[in-house]
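Input chain follows. Return structure tokens only.
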Amino acid sequence: MKLYRTELRRILRRRLALVFGILIAAGTLLLAGIVWFASSSGPTEAEIETARPEIAAEHPEYAECLRNEEFFEQEWGWDENDPMLQDQTHEELCDEFIAPWEAQEQLGNNVYTFDFEAEGVWFLVGLSIVVGLVTMFLAASSIGAEWNSGSMANLLLWHPNRLKVWGVKLGAAVTVTAAVIVAVVVLEFLLLYPAAAVRGEVGTLDADWWSDTLGILVRTLVLVAGMAVFGASLAMLGRHTAIAGGLIAGYLIVGELIVWYLTTAANISYPDRFSLYTWVGAWITGKTELYDLSGQAAETETMIITSTDSALLLGGIIAVFAALATWAFAKRDT
């Protein structure tokens, strides 16, 4: 336990941890500020009703649309009972498709309204993943710095049990990562909720919403903790922070470019299954459906990747690199 507390203090007292902490706090506040100023509740129903005749007086086509209930069927061949349109009234369709561009905001269109019920969790997930990338690099740099400074060799003189030392370092990295993610999510929640209440819509945060949201956030937390283990493992294997950062950046750039090529140029079924983002998305959301655009699918036009499938793949990748790092640290000389 003493070694664990010492490792926690060592990580938290690093200058890089302070810099990253400031950047994370600033990014969290900046995101909330952007949502606050970008969101608007828009005009009220009474204001929209008042604006319609004023706009119609200056734009004959819009006036004709409001007057003629069969305007879209006669002019464009649309059926307003179509499932894609039936949630909107005839007036709302005129507002959206016929009203001039300069009048759209008066009618409630072209106005971004932050909906906490629908969007809040995805702001939290996106921020958590970005912070996870930062903490993954922090975990890797913590291991790499010890190798570069020679403090790893000095530590092993006092604690020769390498498996215990490695386990403590992984545990400390995961603890710091989890604590940072939880703090960021709570802070961003407390900042976004007032923004939705004042300048957007809160929506209905019922028991089902909380259950789904907490499930998504817990899976995101597990993913980010795994990222910290992955970053530390790469640094342990290479004995250098740059190796870990280079491999991660190399995949995100070169690897995803290859996937993009497979998606756009190679005529293969479900090319998105080769993208790491697809599996990450399936883990976070619980399920991802892929569509075959090549026409080569034998039995079905969709491919479903579940969170279990993603857990096996992503967890397997992390486990393999953690096992390799453990074997390398336990076997080789410092």
